[in-house]
Amino acid sequence: MYFHIHLVVIFFCSQIVPTTIAKSYSSHSITERLHNVALKHSAGLASDLRVALGGVLLTRRQQPTNSGLQNRAVYCVSQQSSKNNGGAQVPLSGGGNGTTTTIRPSGTSGSGGTATSTTGGSTPSSTSSWTLAEAHQGSSFFDGWDFFTGSDPTHGDAIFINQSTANSLNLAQINGQGNAVMAVETTPQVAGTRQSVRITTQSQFNGGLFIMDAVHMPTGCATWPAFWTNGPNWPTNGEIDIIEGVNNYTNNQATIHTNPGCSLASSSSSALAITGTVVGGTDCSAADSGNQGCGMRSPANNSFGTGFNDIGGGVYAMQWDDSGIAVFFFPRGSVPSDINAGSPDPSGWGTPMARWPAASCNPFQFFKQHSVIFDITLCGDWAGSVWSSSGIPGQEQSCAQLTGFSTCDAFAQANGASFSEAYWEVSSVKIYQQSS
Ligand SMILES: *[C@@H]1O[C@H](CO)[C@@H](O)[C@H](O)[C@H]1NC(C)=O
Ligand SMILES: *[C@@H]1O[C@H](CO)[C@@H](O)[C@H](O)[C@H]1NC(C)=O
Ligand SMILES: *[C@@H]1O[C@H](CO)[C@@H](O)[C@H](O)[C@H]1NC(C)=O
Ligand SMILES: *[C@@H]1O[C@H](CO)[C@@H](O)[C@H](O)[C@H]1NC(C)=O
After folding, report:
1. What pLDDT is attached to residue 127?
2. Distance 220 CA to ligand 3 centre (A)
3. 138 CA distance to ligand 3 centroid (A)?
4. How far apart are the first and last CA of the chain?
5. Dist. CA 302 → ligand 4 center (Å)
6. What kind and span of H or E run contains 10?
7. Does a cis peptide bond (omega within 30 degrees of 0) precede residue 235?
């Protein structure tokens, strides 16, 4: 079985793969809307969607509208994946002609990449089996990302703008600290949507270690930010939500969404060896679970929102390898030195906040060709639907109570100043591939 899977992966990796931009839609047919609804979710939302989505998810097609077909760098985990031969992971396409900061793993024969390095080549220590493949930081942070444009597939009050517009409005910029800032428009009043930013890596990955360091994340009533990955043809190639939550939440929720066949063997934190709590079901299939997926909530109230920002943020790491998928959170001040040194070694990091073990969810069958995504939306399918809810960590009072507005939309349109904290400030995104 595993051998078969590797053959599939090799097929994907043996060419420059034309792919579509995920989650890019223009029209609003019923099936499309249902699919779009399903693209982002929450446990609280699932019951609303379950009936509507039944039977529709797996038959819907994607309709790329923004950019059509593109050639993308695809990183591979081959049959040699984990234990030897540093040549196992090869970026086979240059992707964006130098727009990505790509380092071809040493020892590979030059099969097709126009890979470049702008990262200064930190030398991995002998204990890390991970090699830096792509880094986004400093003045070139936005190189290698596409700006998704258009309305929000999850029905939020955001309109996503292109890079030049975002730059000119200071909604995407590099600040004086050299960090990338992505923000929501704070015009006092708007009639409908607020301009916002959603970016997707041009490179795609089959496995990897994804490490994101941020000093600030969007927070406040109506906000719904996420840092996540997904593959084409959702949910066939899976979605991994690394950081996600809404409104005033202070505890992160990490979630996977898949095709049928991926599950958790248990909902027990100790059995799963996680610090988090399973908040969804144990069937991770989008179709089977009303798109609830398998969500896990961090016990740390500094892992999201105000709590995260108050401590100067921290580092999230998502590990996707033969053992499965895991998400780690390290508050500022507790970031492992091997991460800071550029030679990350997850084996020394302790218990992750979330983990989906390979034994019940093959990580290379249900997840393929993932791009990394940041976005900020407002209201919509999650933040809007829980506007009047309370009892989630950080949300002791509902946003309806806190703001005096009975709907999320009305609040978002009338209170631009309340989005002064609705921004990502990201120091770096570093993507590693297994090397030896
Ligand atoms: C690659 O980018 C460089 C610098 O922008 C440009 O001069 C060159 O023509 C590009 N090459 C191709 C093949 O597009
Ligand atoms: C960016 O969006 C603006 C506003 O819609 C448009 O005028 C401009 O042509 C776009 N720029 C690019 C490079 O697409
Ligand atoms: C909760 O949200 C409201 C409205 O955005 C904001 O004024 C308040 O500061 C938030 N509270 C916390 C603790 O983040
Ligand atoms: C986190 O929890 C601690 C202990 O209950 C509390 O003192 C602190 O105010 C909380 N922080 C946030 C941001 O909610």
Report:
1. 76
2. 5
3. 30
4. 23
5. 8
6. helix 2-13
7. yes
Dihedral angle sign, alpha carbons of residues 418, 420, 421, 422: positive
Identify the residue whose tokens are 């929000």.
152
* pLDDT value for 52: 29
d(CA 318, CA 422): 23
Q: Strands (DSSP E) along 154-286, which ranges?
A: 158-160, 172-174, 180-183, 194-196, 198-201, 204-205, 208-216, 223-230, 239-244, 253-257, 277-278
Which residues are annotated as catalytic? Answer: 239, 244
Q: Dump the DSSP string for 103-148.
A: -PPTT----S------S--PPPPTT--EEEEEEEEGGGTTTTEEE-
Looking from the CA of residue 305, the nearest atom of ligand 4 is 13
Q: Which domains does the chain have, with CATH numbers?
A: 2-386+414-434 (2.60.120.200)
Q: Which residue has the least CA distance to atom 11 on ligand 3?
A: 248
Q: What is the mean pLDDT of each run of 10 residues along the chain (436 residues)?
A: 31 33 30 38 34 26 30 48 25 30 31 35 63 98 98 96 98 98 98 98 98 98 98 96 98 98 98 96 92 95 98 98 98 98 97 98 98 98 96 96 98 98 98 89
Give the CA angle between residues 213, 102, 146 to the nearest 5°.
Answer: 70
Position 205 scores a pLDDT of 98
307 CA: nearest ligand 4 atom: 13
Would you say the CB of residue 165 lies under 6 angstroms from ligand 2?
Answer: yes
Closest Cα to atom 10 of ligand 1: 97
pLDDT in the model for residue 423: 98
Strands of the sheet containing 198-201, edge to edge, are 145-147, 198-201, 371-378, 223-230, 239-244, 253-257, 294-297, 277-278
Nearest CA to ligand 3 atom 10: 220
Take atom 12 of ligand 4 and give the residue whose Cα is closest: 307
Please choose from 301, 310, 332, 421 the residue to mutate so as to test ligand 4's pocket, defined by most ligand atoms within 8 A of CB.
301
Does the C-beta of 306 come closer than 6 Å to ligand 4?
yes
Q: Which residues contact 82 (CB under 8 A, 6 or more apart)?
A: 129, 321, 322, 434
Closest listed ligand to the CA of 98: 1
